[in-house]
Amino acid sequence: MPEERVEINVLYFAAASTATGLSQELVSVTSGLRLADLGDVLVARHPKATALRKILDGSKWSVDAEMVDDPDAVELKGGEEVAVICPVSGG
Questions:
Q1: Contacts 24+ apart (CB under 8 A), 50-55
Q2: Is the pTM of this model over 0.85?
Q3: Which keywords does the record carry (predicted)?
Q4: Using one digit for the tens of pLDDT, what is the confidence trace for 71-85?
């Protein structure tokens, strides 16, 4: 039986938005994909965004406006809004 594909809405902020050239996009993923593995999907979708892997590795995630402490514990079912929250510095 083929794996079920679902769509999620990914929001990009700050450096992630600059790297991808997008503020958001619909991404098709396998139902049950761990949030921790979403970075691999996004890097594969944006091969010209050479800094994206480093940006994602240093970022936090939120799902449906809730910050995620353990991306390994979150499975994406479809319909979620996932935000890439880049670290910010301020003075």
A1: 51/15, 51/19, 52/16, 52/19, 52/20, 55/15, 55/16, 55/19, 55/84, 55/86
A2: yes
A3: Nucleotide-binding
A4: 999 999 999 999 999
